[in-house]
Design brief:
Length: about 130
């Protein structure tokens, strides 16, 4: 089993190619991570050491809180850290920001990266 313990750009470039070969589509990139989707699964691949750390933190936040809110009321989308430090999670459609009655914490998330998962509003990008 391959366990990645630090960011390696060559490895992750090859992994992105692997995902495309397996039928994943590139759905976007931020400053630190790239997202790939196949059906209802998303894999976030780090683009640099900050994305590597973000993946670890995002999976850790879900592991700590599961479906319960943190002290700010945020609920995190399920996120599993793979052995190669990529994050796997369900695809969640971004919430309509004009929707009424959104929790205050949702509007405080960068670019309101929240959506519905099993009838709950969750953060799908908490890094």
């Amino acid at each position: 089993m391959l366990v990645i313990k630090e960011y390696n750009s060559d490895y992750f470039e090859n992994f992105k190619e692997f995902l495309l070969e397996k039928g994943f589509a590139h759905i976007g990139s931020g400053h630190f991570r790239a997202g790939y989707r196949r059906k209802n699964i998303v894999i976030k691949v780090p683009e640099n050491k900050f994305g590597f750390e973000d993946n670890i933190l995002e999976a850790h936040a879900y592991k700590i809180y599961r479906n319960k809110p943190d002290k700010y009321g945020r609920v995190f989308a399920p996120a599993r850290l793979l052995t190669n430090a990529c994050v796997m999670m369900p695809f969640i459609t971004k919430i309509d920001e004009s929707e009424t009655n959104l929790p205050k914490w949702c509007l405080e998330i960068d670019n309101v990266q929240c959506g519905y998962y099993k009838d709950k509003i969750v953060v799908y990008d908490s890094a």
